[in-house]
What we know:
heterodimer, A: alpha+beta, Alpha-Beta Plaits, four-stranded antiparallel beta sheet, 2 helices, B: Rossmann fold, 15% strand
Amino acid sequence: MPLRRVRFTFQTELIQRPVIYDLGMKFEIVTNIRRADVGQETGWVVLELEGAVEEIERGLEWVAAQGVEVSSLEGDILAG
Amino acid sequence: MSNVQSLRCKECGRDYPQEPIYVCDFCFGPLEVNYDYDAIAKSMSRESIQDGPLTIWRYDDLLPASRDSAVDIGAGMTPLLKADNLGKELGLNNLWIKNDAANPTHSFKDRVVSVAATKAVEFDFDTIACASTGNLAGATAAHGAKAGMNTMVFIPADLERGKVLGAAIFGSVVLVNGNYDDVNRLCSELGDDRRWAFVNINMRPYYSEGSKSIGYELAEQLGWHAPEHIIVPVASGSLFTKVYKGLNEFAELGIIDNANTKMHIAQPFGCSPVAKAFVEEQAHPKPVIPDTIAKSLAIGSPADGYYTVGIANKTGGSGTIVPESKIAEGMKLLAETEGIFTETAGGVVISTLRRLAREGVIGPDEETVALITGTGLKTLEAIEDSVSTKTIDATVRSFDEIVMGRGVK
């Protein structure tokens, strides 16, 4: 199964929501947290997603629609 | 001879062999080159450096490849100029400009790509690749040509003609129909499944080491000491962290006495996640969608943003968000006072410098270096509305009338 490494950044209003749990429940995606730092006001989680390419895409769109910042682990590839 | 011991995860400290990899398998932290500093201390000295070539490869003890096998088109040892005119304008008596527009393809990217291309050859890749909005494209294409490698340079199709041709002259350039995110995603996918040396993906641990040479050069050119302040334009944050690392390595090795430099972040309003995180006292920059005329700084999700904020804090530095309208002003000020035509990123640096001087963050006599990372000739459109010219007929009368402002007697 294809793997994807991503970073989620949460703002205050989303910290208490189980977004990663929901992602695994709503989509056929296995989530695997590798590193995280969650405080009272903001937090980030680096995780690996396993699933079909289209399913991961749909899942990430859903996560972004919840207000979570989704970025690739590498940061931006396109450089000046 | 290379003094590299391993690649080491910046987060969990796990070691990896020297391979074209860039992320820790366990914690997904970034990998960085780890050197045998005891061995380096025995071989490297001010004298050994001065005996080396006038390129970044004079510091090859602290680079992940040897000068003997370097893909070298002459990157580095760019001028460090005392900027008395600009200093007078800003009230700074000890101001220096590091002009990296003097590199072979006119930007600091030649430093990093020279190292990446050298490692790519060492790893036996036949193709070198990058995704770029300008400077990296030219540097990768030029070094790919010198190394005799296949070159794949991906750039957005709507990029300015000058930048496209400036890279295409060296070889293959691929124009991608799509926006910034589309190009990013495509190149991330290509990087996953092709055996290519993607300079800012799988070559990144090596590539980024090239930027340390700016720190080494500053120390050497200032007479073997670190300046009190450096203003660095920030895109991914890699340059910022590596200039800091370079100065600190020199201090650790005893080549300079100490590295107490205050590191200042300069970003444009239209893409300022790192400066904003600093100002708002957040450790992690929040990703943004870039919308700035400073294209070479348009990285909305900066890979080294977290480390950059940390260094700025640790060194007593600062973070400045420059209004878009002040970018061309900064470019013009540098051009008119020092005769240096910088790219938009340089305009961001000069405007930051002006603010820091005005607010007293930099004292009048404190030794300060502003990093100019590329030439203005690649971003001419940025100053179209800021400069004016006069057209006359080929007569003295027309000259007197229009240029000298004298009416007809």
